[in-house]
Amino acid sequence: MKTLDVESENKINNSDPIKISLNKYPRLLVLKAAFETLKEGNKVTISELERKIYLFLSYSYKIKKSH
Question: 47 — phi, psi (to 5°)?
């Protein structure tokens, strides 16, 4: 039975866009992107999360650059 649990856990991790994004980006950015996506009424996907994170990062870069 233990091998089935490990296999199912790996499938869950591979299909969870938030857990995948947490391996690449800081937790705060991932959670902010996920909540913004849900607030807009969209489904949380990896592409949607990365689009939001890119938007947040580029926005903060523009603010720092203008000062």
Answer: -65, -40
Q: Torsion over CA of 18, 19, 24 and 30, rounded to 10 degrees? A: 30
Tokens of 1: 């039975």
Distance CA 1, CA 48 (A): 36
- Please give the share of the chain, as a percent, with pLDDT higher than 90: 60
**Above 80 in pLDDT, residue 51?**
yes
The pTM for the full model equals: 0.68
Would you say residue 3 has pLDDT above 60?
Answer: no
Rg of the chain over Cα atoms, rounded to whole angstroms, equals: 15
52 burial type by CB count under 10 A (0-12 exposed, 13-18 middle, 19+ buried): buried
